[in-house]
Amino acid sequence: MVRPPSGDKNGLKRGTWTPEEDGKLIAYVTRYGCWNWRQLPKFAGLSRCGKSCRLRWMNYLRPNIKRGNYSREEEETIIKLHESLGNRWSAIAAQLPGRTDNEIKNHWHTNLKKGLKKSSDVPRQENNSSNNLSQLEKIQKRTDPNNPLLYPTDTSTEIIGRLPSSDPQPSSSRSSSITTNTSVEPTISMVEDDNPTSTEASAETSGNFWTQPFLTDNSYIACDFLAPFMGTEDLSPVVDEFSCPYGLFELEKHGANDLSVPLEKARKGEKEPNDPLLICTAQIMDSSPSSPQPSSSELSSMTKDSAVASSTNMVADDIVTSLEASAETTGDFWTEPFFDGNSYITSDFLAPFTDSEYLSPAFDEYLSGYGLYGEYEGVNMIN
DNA sequence: AATTCTATCAACCGCCAAGTC
DNA sequence: CGACTTGGCGGTTGATAGAAT
């Protein structure tokens, strides 16, 4: 089912992604964003081509991806859209939040197409809803989310790689107490979609990695998830920013601060060896070329304009206001110092960047031009 | 128990469009 | 305007788990 690592091509690794590689990619993209897929593997410390990184992120690692367990509504939508759109999988995927074109394509070829073919092969057979329903039920039975073989309950293992889990599951008592106490409330109320679908709701209760609230005793998930922010940044606005897309807010209130302890233990080798992902993550963070920055020569070749230009390429046009354009023309935008009391400068200073891009190398370079390094917290506060 | 067949899906490949130089 | 780069898309492959023989 999974391709093993195959031969190198031009010195680039191919085949199945390892947990270490996933960790590096997650750590880098969540911190710096995907500012250039081709360059990204170099800075992320990956021996992969940019295309492979992009694919891995888009189809597997990025937040809010639903896996398996297609609802009846989703399958009906796919069938309906395929009738009108044909094999335009990305267009179909656009109508199904959380589903990737690749996964929909696979699901179509492996499940839905056969079902449709069968029903068209037997035209006399009543093509009514109950018939379709049984087909769908058959499919859903095959993709039973409770089937541990198909969908391990520890979905973090799947997201991060496919390490044989040593069972660092959240205890059921803990889970139930968490899900029934108030700590869940802000998470649910603050996620982008205020009306999560039944599938999402079920994913939450079934322990979906991306929607599950932090559990203090779930060091396996949490430490890895927080790996890019270990240390003092745990409680910074950056972590909030990082956690927002995952539906996770106000981490400090849910014990996120406790998480540095087990990771620190793993770093020191104090953690039991039966927690492979935790140790692996510690290694990734320690060996930290996982997030290397451009070299000084590379930085010097990257002018402020080009850095910002590359960033603005990623920004929606409507964000660039006439005010900014005017500021750019006059030059004030680039030369004014960056200080707390100057709200015009601060908002416009930050305007070329979206929230996620505050963590990009381009933004680091942008700040460094003003002698500002690692001022994310300050930037966020001022902004 | 061993072998063969089938289903699954992550990953790769080649092509294309848009943007940049 | 053409060459080049980059991101995105759809078709296809191939290893493996599980089912069937």
Task: Give me the secondary-structure category.
Answer: mainly alpha
Based on CA inertia axes, which overall geometry fits?
globular
Total number of helices: 22
Helix and strand element order: EEHHHHHHHHHHHHHHHHHHHHHH
- Strands, count: 2
What's the N-to-C terminus distance?
Answer: 47 Å
What does the largest sheet look like? 2 strands, antiparallel
Overall helicity: 40-55%
Summarize the structure.
It holds the Pfam family Myb_DNA-binding. The chain is mainly alpha-helical and 383 residues long.
Entry keywords:
383 residues; mainly alpha; 4 domains; 22 helices; 2 strands; globular; disordered C terminus; DNA-binding
What would you say this structure looks like, in words?
With 383 residues, the chain is mainly alpha-helical. It folds into four domains: 13-61, Homeodomain-like (Arc Repressor Mutant, subunit A, Orthogonal Bundle); 72-123, Arc Repressor Mutant, subunit A (Orthogonal Bundle); 202-292, no CATH class; 296-382, no CATH class. Helices cover 52% and strands 2% of the residues. It has helices at residues 19-32, 40-44, 50-61, 72-85, 89-94, 101-121, 129-142, 155-160, 172-180, 184-190, 198-205, 219-226, 237-243, 260-267, 276-286, 296-301, 304-312, 322-330, 332-335, 343-350, 361-368, 376-382; strands at 6-9, 12-14. It has a two-stranded antiparallel sheet with strand order 1-2. Strand 1 and strand 2 (12-14) form a beta hairpin. Helix 6 packs across helix 7 and helix 17 (304-312) runs antiparallel to helix 21 (361-368). The longest helix is centred in the N-terminal third of the chain and has 21 residues, at 101-121. The radius of gyration is 23 Å and the shape is globular. Residues 2-6, 122-348 and 371-383 have low confidence and may be disordered. The chain binds a DNA duplex (21 and 21 nucleotides) through helix 3 and helix 6.
